[in-house]
Predict the 3D structure of the following.
Amino acid sequence: MDADALRKSLADLNLEPLWERTEGGLRPAPLPDAPQIWRWAEIEPLIDETIAAVPMDKVERRVLTLRNPDPRRRYTTTTRSINCGLQVLMPGETAPPHRHSPNALRVALAGEGGRTTVNGETHEMIRGDVILTPSWTSHAHSHAGSERVVWIDFLDVPLFRDLELIFFEVGGAEPEAAVASVGGAHGGPLPAGRFPWADIRAALIAAASDGESVHDYVDPVIGDAALATLDCRARCFRPGNRLERERRTSANSVCLVLEGEGETDFGETVLRWRPNDIFTVPHWRWHAHRVEGDAPAVLMEVSDRPALRRLGVLSETERARRSAP
Ligand code: GTQ
Ligand code: FE2
């Protein structure tokens, strides 16, 4: 049998010679995406235009997805594992209950009075608060305040989509029934729904006395990240931090600037950021965060670290480097 005949006979039996594959396959290291930033000063005016143009009786949720524009990948998401959206509600508006297999984590950003109800329990959303809706918990949003509210949704939809494991149901399951049928990320009790920023901020900033500090959001019952796939860290950087840390990780993350100004140095790209800006830290890129000005900077970082840890592919490296005087 010559090579062509062999190829044809193999194909007829749905067999493919691996040695003739050109695309995909094995490579020495991940191909990282380009970092991307969404600047609040640019997007805020369009949030107001969106409110004027899109009434809530026309859409289920008023969300602007942060879409990674990398032309090589044709993403419809923010990073390859995390999808982020800016969700906007006006006083009196609601987003109806539903539930889905993807996990979600929200960080309140602007305005007061927003509420998220998770399996029948209603949580306030005050700037910086983290609210969890684990897989298959019923959730709805409402607004009891008097001003526009904006929060960021972080979902692991891209992971679930790749696994073809999206389940979605409109409407509220009876809260009790939902609680009974769904455990937390680890099959135990459901993780705490809300982590108030006010409980964390002062200690985080105080702990940064020698340059920087980090607070890991951990479920108080299981002592681990509250969601099976996503975790959350608040990082604080103080001005005049001379011993800068450079990091590289296999995890993808998205950072929200809660306070302060600074930049993230990716080598060939430097992203400058201010409060409410959102930027990606694509996996496997060396990067260093740097504060500018006199005030500490606080970043809220959401990553796919728990998913990678469970897959046994979480690799995180940190090295100190002395920044220029
Ligand atoms: O609020 O339930 O940005 O289901 C994307 C999907 C928000 C939500 C998003 C969702 C939601
Ligand atoms: Fe949802």
About this structure: Residues 175-186 have pLDDT under 50 and may be disordered.
